[in-house]
Amino acid sequence: MIGDNPDNDKEEQVKTSKGGLKGSPPTKFNGDRKTAKQFMNDFRAYRFLNRKNETMKVAANRVALALTFIKGEQVQDWANSIMDLMEERLDSRLNPMQETNEYHWTSFKDTFRDAFTDTSEWEDTDNQLQNLKMTNGDLDKFITHFNCLVIISEREDKTRGLVPLFKEGLPFSLAQACMN
Hints:
Largest sheet: none
Radius of gyration: 22 Å
């Protein structure tokens, strides 16, 4: 067993941090907007499983790895431009960015989302959230559905009106009782 021998533990740690990645890599992404969310979710799980691996620890390497799963005629120019931008940031003479800077990853995720996510899904979810009403007196079901829609629509801050939206979905008497 691995836990019985400290030498085996160290060997396993070295394999994990410097060796091959574990688990199933995400399916190649070819630019199909319907699969963009699934690709990012799969990569997120792959990243989590390999979080101790050096490739996943270093933001620039993580982006480069993600780009290896983005293949096809529709996406090759986009992927090349992302790599060019990252190389420019790393090689800048005036202000080079460290490869460990999480901005590399955040920028990749934001740019990917802007370029490939199904915008109608976000709009549909946001519409559902704005029109959600509690039915049949089932508060637990309403809260669960509301929270799921908030996550999907990425409306996680209260300053954008989540409390009023929640209140509007409740029957008037329950909303009044909650607010008093």
